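Predict the holo structure. Ligand: acetyl coenzyme *A.
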Amino acid sequence: MPDTITLIDDRTGKTVTVPITDGVFPATAVRDLDPSLYVYDPAYMQTAACKSAITYLDGEAGILRYRGYPIEQLAEKSTYLEVAYLLLNGELPTDAQLTQWKADVTHHTFIHENMRKRFVDGFHYDAHPMGMLVSSLAALGTFYNDAKDIFDKGSRDKQILRLIAKTPTLAAMCYRFSMGLPFVYPNNSLSFPGNFLNMMWRVGDDYEIDPRLERAMDVLFILHADHEQNCGTTAMRVVGSSQADPYSSAAAAASALYGPLHGGANEAVVRMLEEIGSIDNVPAFIQEVKSGTGSRLMGFGHRVYKNYDPRATIIKQTAYEVFEVTGKNPLLDIALKLEETALSDDYFVSRKLYPNVDFYSGLIYQALGFPTAMFTVLFAIPRTVGWLAHWQELLADKDQKISRPRQWYTGVGVRDYVAVGER
Ligand code: ACO
């Protein structure tokens, strides 16, 4: 069977044959057929907008790999900082490289005092921490004039380090402001997740990091580090394609993540479980979802996964490990009943709707003491490295130009203007 596809323009009889490589054929075939012809593909359902060598995802089989390494192995054996190095560089670090990388990230955890004292203090007392984080990411870039030198590798690497290292500091700062608590400075003797937990929870001298919770935090960071061309990463690439600095691009990516259909879903899951209130109410809730009179079953379904999201499997297992320390989250039973009911219901089975990464992550976050408003922020911290890996790849990609899709104009044709008073 030839690995080609032939497009025929039935209006003119012209044909264009192009190769199919890895299941993809170039859209230039359409241009070659007729330069005034466009493909209508809302939400990019059938469009590969870039080549990428970072993350492999097979949604039908439920497979996720970073740079070829199965997510299950990384979640079991690796650390977030090691995974961050892998995503950015394509290879796992040697011992010496990892030591250097950890030291480099650790030495960029502090933020300028003006970020905290003047910028964050300007927010309204009840500002949402994710809204604050989005703005803080953009504001952070204004402290670094070299941020705009995006074609200088040294400068690019510096901004990458800064963003990875400072996002947890910004996140904890936003949380503490929203709680009216004093800021806790980074402690560079701690691990990446340990430092974050310390900045979140320390009150005076009072905070002991439980190594099991520190590890759980790191596993959650690993699982959220990248997920190829999702809405947030696409926003990063689209804004990055205009050669904006990486802070502004990351702020755009974080804005995309903020939405309830994307990174905001874990918050929505917990709200949904609280509203359901008891396992007795699960059948009625599922009925409402199916009839379309209620909301969607949050934390279920995925644009790409048509199978169990492999991250959901690991998160579910991590949830039990966390509950051993914190005690069981009372919402767990409702979540388990929902999952069991949905997975045996033809509505969900026939539409291939399975738990996604957000279904159980909120329960862990809640057990760890995070308020629901912080959940998307917890997603943004590790996803920063995914955004940056894609940004770096974009800048090196000779096929890329400024993102500029075309439209299918459906408005009216030309009209004569009639002045106010004469209409
Ligand atoms: N509950 C009930 N029905 C659903 C759900 C759900 N969670 N998700 C999809 N469906 C149904 C749709 O109503 C539709 O049914 P129909 O064919 O009868 O019209 C069918 O399944 C296909 O749904 P689409 O909306 O076309 O699927 P799409 O790929 O556009 O949506 C999405 C994916 C947004 C994730 C969707 O499944 C959803 O809204 N899930 C709930 C929100 C959520 O958990 N988001 C987190 C995603 S993971 C992440 O971003 C990190």
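The chain has 18 helices and five strands. Residues 54 and 67 are 5 Å apart (CA to CA).
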